Automatic annotation (TrEMBL):
This is Pyridoxal phosphate homeostasis protein. It comes from Vineibacter terrae. Belongs to the pyridoxal phosphate-binding protein YggS/PROSC family. Residues 41-230 form the Alanine racemase N-terminal domain. Coiled coil: none annotated. Its cofactor is pyridoxal 5'-phosphate. Pyridoxal 5'-phosphate (PLP)-binding protein, which is involved in PLP homeostasis. Gene3D superfamilies: Alanine racemase (3.20.20.10). Keywords: Pyridoxal phosphate. One of its GO terms (molecular function) is pyridoxal phosphate binding. The modification N6-(pyridoxal phosphate)lysine is found at residue 36.
Length: 244
């Protein structure tokens, strides 16, 4: 068994245990395995171990990797900040976008999707930490944004995504996750999309178990499976922390 397979087995077990602690079945949480900076041949070790949902932060890297792994059955998730000028490229490989956070991006996605004759699953990104360095809507902007999204028929919002503050303070981490949980609770009752907004993508390699305890249905984990990256997140993605 490869080190990737062993790590993946460990992470899956910890995800299942955290789900049970939160009062849910062990299989209630979906793992998006973040392949950022990981070469295709190493990603294949995870595919050989049964992982089929992969996440990427940058469009060019994701597209190149999807092409290199085109023979495999993979669901690709775009989890990083998405610029409008990258929409055409991201739709060449991504099955979902977890970082929808502004109407111009929604409009650009809609226009391209209409041209392609297809829809797209999306999560609304919320900045629950309040940090200027992070992307996402402010919590009080979410409900008006959901109302505005009804104008875009090709977008299928199914929940929310956030990044907690990067800190050793677990109380602060939990606070960030609880903010998103409360937003979902309100949206389920008041947003026009209603019960379709059921998912919460929150939690990375350092805090995914806490996120699951606070209600995450999706976690984005990379380094806990593939090992440390050769460059820091701040070098790779200086504008904001990126989910993995």
């Amino acid at each position: 068994m490869s080190d990737v397979a062993r790590n993946l087995e460990t992470v899956r077990a910890r995800i299942g245990a955290a789900a049970v602690r939160s009062g849910r079945p062990a299989d209630a949480v979906r793992l998006v395995l973040v392949a950022k900076t990981v070469p295709p041949e190493r990603v294949r070790l995870a595919l050989d171990a049964g992982q089929r949902v992969l996440g990427e932060n940058k469009v060019q890297e994701g597209r190149a990797k999807a092409e290199a792994l085109a023979d495999a059955s993979i669901r690709w998730s775009m989890i990083g900040h998405l610029q409008t000028n990258k929409v055409k490229d991201v739709l060449r490989f991504a099955h979902e976008v977890q970082s929808l956070d502004r109407l111009p991006l929604a409009a650009t996605l809609e226009k391209r999707l209409q041209h392609l004759g297809r829809g797209l699953d999306v999560l609304v990104q919320v900045n629950t930490s309040g940090e200027a360095s992070k992307y996402g809507l402010a919590p009080d902007e979410v409900m008006p944004f959901l109302q505005a999204l009804t104008a875009f028929a090709s977008l299928r919002p199914y929940g929310f995504m956030t990044l907690a503050r990067f800190t050793a303070d677990t109380d602060e981490i939990r606070r960030c996750f609880r903010v998103l949980h409360a937003i979902r609770a309100r949206a389920l009752q008041e947003a026009p999309q209603g019960e379709r907004l059921a998912d919460l993508s929150m939690g990375m390699s350092g805090d995914y178990e806490i996120a699951i305890e606070e209600g995450a249905t999706i976690v984005r984990v990379g380094q806990a499976v593939f090992g440390p990256r050769p460059t820091s997140d701040s070098s790779y993605w200086p504008e904001a922390a990126s989910g993995s």
